[in-house]
User: Fold these one by one.
Assistant:
Number 1:
Amino acid sequence: MAIKLNLNSKEILEKVFPNVPRGYDPLEVDKYLDIVRRDYKLVEANYLEESSEVDTLKARIAALEKENEALKIENEKYASRLKDINENDNVTVDNIDLVKRINVLEKFLYQHGYIPSQIK
């Protein structure tokens, strides 16, 4: 977030107050210091806002990293299960064709009023 400051460090450094018989004009100094104070309040408010946003984002990052680790563990678990399935089960086109054929036969039985699981 960009903020517009009334002064910069060079202006503060090079500011010359007009001389009066007994030192600087107190009203000029007060006006100038009021401007400096407002600028620093803006900077401080901006800093506090950004630091709280940074803290919030750091907490969010930590939560997402924790969630990411949990998902990695779960992913590894499923990958090992899939590997076991692929190694142990020989799924072939013949097996798929048989399942399709059984499905067609069961549908035929249901259409004619029979329940395939109850046939002995």
Number 2:
Amino acid sequence: MSVPTRYSDTIGESNSVINLMFLQSGSTELNNHLIHSDWRLTSDHAPLTVFIPIVENDINLSKFSIAKNSEEEAAFIKNVSSIIKNLDIFDLSNTDKLEDMVNILTTNTEYVWDKDSKLVNITRHSKSWWTKECN
């Protein structure tokens, strides 16, 4: 059954359905729109509404991180640079020596990361625009 959404003020012209609302096809959750002909007051169009359920999702995620432009980031970069600078790369004559050097780099970088990073919880406020002032 079509319900009019535009009501004609002209005698002899019929009411019509011309307003559009784009909803998800086949979704009982999002196809619950209403036409409010009693809300139109002096307008010739009836307001349309749809109820969209918004579920609060908890994101249970934690990760180690270093804040950009922080003292911890500066310390991490300085320490990793020092590790790289002090690597013994002069005798990489075979695969075993190369693998040893890579393992030293990996172990030392992981140690510095663990020292300079902190565990952060990812939440809905974990966006770049969310600042301490928002709290």
